[in-house]
């Protein structure tokens, strides 16, 4: 199979972890005889440095011309520590999501037996956790009008949602539930927010199209608690942009580390794959970041955009085998000395040399 992949490494640990995902993709090319072309483009703080724009037009065109997009992370302390910066890396990320129509961010949360003791939760709570969050990605408070009063004493962020925005992601969530345990939990704050009440109204009506799927509702504060208390309760979580952002960072530590979680951002035209973490600036250039979220994002890319399920499975099994062999970064095991590049090399080597054994498990 011949495909074009846009590669947006971004800032901080973005380039380091994306490079490990690329090693896995190149190993897959070699083993299966696929031909992937990789076109790099700028985004985030690095794009501001070079062009003045966190999401340059050229990057947009590269994304549009590709069959799928692999993304690292953006963000730099020089902007985090300057609340009045006129241009920010995060604006590039939001502009990319909006302009490419990436309205649904799919974040699977599964645990690995071997990592049970890396989780801050008890092993019996963690073992067997398997749920997926459908986070709305191009609406809500992150995209609403923002501002300050004339005297600058008041600031506001507007949150709005349309029926259409809610329906299109609901469709994906209910379809996913049909292939899983047939339960959708809508997480909102409908006891307070008008937007949440619209979500409830629309999703309740929409659910009638899926009589085989059970729909329940949970307030976001309760959901934040339940994710820790009883994470196995969840199957498909459907939620708006900011709630999904926060709850998935929380959920990630069930698995052992924020560095473990991949994601797919899908829309009607194209799709983008990224680890759910940020640019982790404290670790940039130190070769210590966990690249598994990025590598597993490459697996999601192969499966979702290219329909290559076996290849995706091989990447996932290679990651799991690496974990089983204790080849992990220090976020997973405190005294571990394995580096980001060593994990990437090991995953690629396993893909190239152990296909049969790994796929048989
Ligand atoms: N999608 C994106 O590009 C995102 C960008 N950001 C940006 O990233 C910058 C840093 O933000 P933070 O809040 O510190 O979030 P972060 O996700 O970069 O890091 C938070 C903490 O999670 C852990 N962590 C994250 N990724 C890891 C990895 N691969 N391996 C091991 N440990 C890992 C570290 O303990 C780190 O201190 C900011 O500029 C922020 O705006 C934040 C979240 C998402
Ligand atoms: C700039 C933020 C919205 C990025 C983030 O935290 C995320 O997408 O998970
Ligand atoms: Mg986030």
UniProtKB/TrEMBL annotation:
Transmembrane regions? none
User: How does the cofactor attach, per the note?
Assistant: Binds 1 Mg(2+) or Mn(2+) ion per subunit.
| Residues at the site labelled Important for catalysis | 142, 189
Record keywords, A-Z: Amino-acid biosynthesis, Branched-chain amino acid biosynthesis, Cytoplasm, Leucine biosynthesis, Magnesium, Manganese, Metal-binding, NAD, Oxidoreductase
Give the Isopropylmalate dehydrogenase-like domain ranges.
Answer: 4-347
Q: Where does Mg(2+) bind?
A: 221, 245, 249
Q: In which pathway does it act?
A: Amino-acid biosynthesis; L-leucine biosynthesis; L-leucine from 3-methyl-2-oxobutanoate: step 3/4
Q: Which reaction does it catalyse?
A: (2R,3S)-3-isopropylmalate + NAD(+) = 4-methyl-2-oxopentanoate + CO2 + NADH
Domain of life from the UniProt record: Bacteria
Gene Ontology molecular function terms on file: 3-isopropylmalate dehydrogenase activity; magnesium ion binding; NAD binding
Pfam families per UniProt = Iso_dh (PF00180)
Location of the protein in the cell:
Cytoplasm
The entry marks the following residues as binding substrate, namely: 97, 107, 135, 221
Gene Ontology BP annotations: L-leucine biosynthetic process
Which cofactors is this protein said to need? Answer: Mg(2+); Mn(2+)
Identify the PANTHER family for this entry.
3-ISOPROPYLMALATE DEHYDROGENASE (PTHR42979:SF1)
Self-association state and partner proteins as the record states: Homodimer.
What family does the entry list?
Belongs to the isocitrate and isopropylmalate dehydrogenases family. LeuB type 1 subfamily.
What is the documented function of this protein? Catalyzes the oxidation of 3-carboxy-2-hydroxy-4-methylpentanoate (3-isopropylmalate) to 3-carboxy-4-methyl-2-oxopentanoate. The product decarboxylates to 4-methyl-2 oxopentanoate.
Q: What is this protein called?
A: 3-isopropylmalate dehydrogenase
**What taxonomic lineage is listed for the species of origin?**
Bacteria, Pseudomonadati, Bacteroidota, Cytophagia, Cytophagales
